[in-house]
Amino acid sequence: MAAAGLGPARLFLGRRRGAMRALLGLARGLASGPQTHFGFQNVSEEERREKIYQVFENVAEKYDVMNDSMTLGIHRVWKDILVHKMNPSPGTLLVDVAGGTGDIAFRFINYVHSIRERQLQQKLKRHQNLSWQEISKSYEEEKVKPLGDSQVVVCDINKEMLKVGKQRAQHLGYSEGLSWVLGNAEELPFDDDKFDVYTIAFGIRNVTRIDLALQEAYRVLKPGGRFLCLEFSHVSNPLLSRLYDLYSFQVIPVLGEIIAGDWKSYQYLVESIRRFPPQADGRT
């Protein structure tokens, strides 16, 4: 499993073949037992699940606006990097877990569609003597199946987050090859060996039993399938770390109150980042 640095975010990449130890290495020491934490509070596992569900139910409508505000739009760059690292080809089956509002799914669709467009242009260049009827037929086929056989399934445990994602998809014109599933990362509602790629962006620290989520990731991936996890991480430089903490604890909750009317949810966000293990703990 490789780990790529993206400033205060971290991207973990791994393959299913022989990678069970690597995936579970990310969760080493995180199997919480009856007691766990919600930010800096000690709570039961069930209470944590309920509180986190409430957080995302509360912030769903403003989730994307807050991401832009908190990161000054840099989260878009991080997500672009994730999809470029994925480098999906036409025919790729992706499950995006905790992907409620669709950011990764939409990028995946755009990426695959651009590849299909390039392939069509290359085909036409190779066959410059094609008739207008044949050229028209090629473009019509592209319109019917712009993603080829590629599909992305957005899976999220929170109904409100999925609702926002579906609304965004409708507004932006995404429908082909896209589906939405209500499901728990710890117990995914999918068959074994189903997907080529599993992604989870800024979601794994909100999973109560990360060890179970990673076992599920391994189960639903095909042999040789890829696991990509994008998450906030600790800043190693002492000076930058102090500035990062100052911004996180003094500014982000205030932004949450001003933009989303919710101080507590964003206080949890920064506390959850602080409590999440450093990136080195995910390496093997």
Automatic annotation (TrEMBL):
Primary enzyme class: transferase
Family matches, as Pfam families: Ubie_methyltran
Cellular localisation: Mitochondrion inner membrane
EC numbers for this chain: 2.1.1.201
One MF term in the entry's GO annotations: 2-methoxy-6-polyprenyl-1,4-benzoquinol methyltransferase activity
Protein residues bound to S-adenosyl-L-methionine: T101, D156, N184, A185
Pathway recorded for this protein: Cofactor biosynthesis; ubiquinone biosynthesis
Keywords: Membrane, Methyltransferase, Mitochondrion, Mitochondrion inner membrane, S-adenosyl-L-methionine, Transferase, Ubiquinone biosynthesis
Alphabetized CDD domains for the sequence: AdoMet_MTases
GO cellular component: extrinsic component of mitochondrial inner membrane
Gene3D superfamilies assigned to the protein according to its UniProt record, in alphabetical order: Vaccinia Virus protein VP39
Function, in words: Methyltransferase required for the conversion of 2-polyprenyl-6-methoxy-1,4-benzoquinol (DDMQH2) to 2-polyprenyl-3-methyl-6-methoxy-1,4-benzoquinol (DMQH2).
Alphabetical list of NCBIfam families matching this protein: MenG_MenH_UbiE
PANTHER family: 2-METHOXY-6-POLYPRENYL-1,4-BENZOQUINOL METHYLASE, MITOCHONDRIAL, METHYLTRANSFERASE
Name of the protein in question: 2-methoxy-6-polyprenyl-1,4-benzoquinol methylase, mitochondrial
Underlying gene: COQ5
